[in-house]
Amino acid sequence: MFVHYLTLGLRSLRRNPALTTLMVMAIGFGVAASMITYSVFRAVSGNPIPDKSAQLFTPQIDSWGPQQNLKGEPAEALDYTDAMALTRAHAAKRQTVLYPVLLSVMPDGSHDMPLNANGYAVTGDFFAMFEVPFRHGSGWSAQDDDARASDVVISSQLNQKIFGGANSVGRTINLGGHDFRVVGITSHWNPRPRFYDLFSTSGFADEPDIYMVFNRALDLHMRTGGRNSCRGSLTYTTWQGYLQSNCVWITPWVELDSPAEVAGYRSFLTHYAANQQHAGRFNWAPNVRLRDVMQWLDQEHVVPPESRISLVVALGFFLICLVNTIGLLLAKFMRRAGEIGVRRALGATRGEIYMQYLVEAGTVGLAGGTLGLLLTAVGVSGVGILFRPEIAKLAQLDFSLVGLTLVVAIAATVLSAFYPAWRAAHVQPAWQLKSN
């Protein structure tokens, strides 16, 4: 019977092309507007590391005090003194500190121009904590951190530019005038949003090129390539003076596997801040935070407000389109009251009438969804008009969005058809036969 009802529905679409076109356009434009904005919202609001987002935490310690902090919130990063203190304490299963670096890369050819490379100075736990995939090699060990080794992990993209895509593990690369040994080559890895560095990026930057040993970067006096936020009068003139200042530029992360470990680390942060107060470094009560990945994304307001607003507006437009579709379906179904009366008189049940007209509505939804797919493909390519380029390029028409577009279009149309189908199923056969 489903095939029979589907055939009747397709015939009905051709019976009144003007009314059918209006319904298909209403569904198509409504679902396209919703899916275009949803594709952006999905990209910027997703969980960037779903397997471990509840085990990764970023500590914050207020080193500025209530007169200079951010409305009671500690700074979004740590100064050198606090970052090194947390690193030496080893109070977590795994831990890393990081900051952005910008360097030039000298290709092998003597006549080639230097390339710009961006990346991070990190500690060895970075790769295991964040599940960085490797094409060749691996990261470095804690012993290499302590030895301040000249090791570097490079991206597959940079490896292609410098070494032609070959396995370059063990080879030497010149970064900023210093030689480094390549120990690993990553596969494509660029979580969106880039949760581990929201202090210096918006969370949607291009994939980093390099990862180098944190202590080696300090030895080379590499300044941060990202934000550097300070408070009060700045009197330092040397590298050591900069390290001892209250400028925050280092982002810490720790891995904690259980609520007990989280509570223990939070207590450790509080005791550390209290000790700094007793030592006279802080003149205020301990003010610390410990947030996991999703809490951190929410705290940093990573999702652009325009994406939320545009999604709400698009859903409102889609709702208006569905209301219009209800009216058009009602007019379409009730025009066939005489036909319905004859079917009911010949023994058709109300359930069969329901099924026939819901299937017919499904065909309208399928046609509208197909139109919506075409409009979504066009709209996704033009979202840069509303959003920043680094966010606009995240919107993609993949298989999941194609399937979702069709499902939403069909489901929404069928739901919209329930009231018109109910009215059609309750047509009185005697009235229709008498009047005709």
From TrEMBL:
The chain crosses the membrane at residues 21-41, 309-333, 354-387, 399-422. InterPro entries: ABC3_permease_C, MacB_PCD, Macrolide_Exporter_MacB. Residues 312-429 form the ABC3 transporter permease C-terminal domain. It is a multi-pass membrane protein. It comes from the Bacteria. Keywords: Cell membrane, Membrane, Transmembrane, Transmembrane helix. It is found in: Cell membrane. Residues 20-217 form the MacB-like periplasmic core domain. This is ABC transporter permease. It comes from Rhodanobacter terrae.
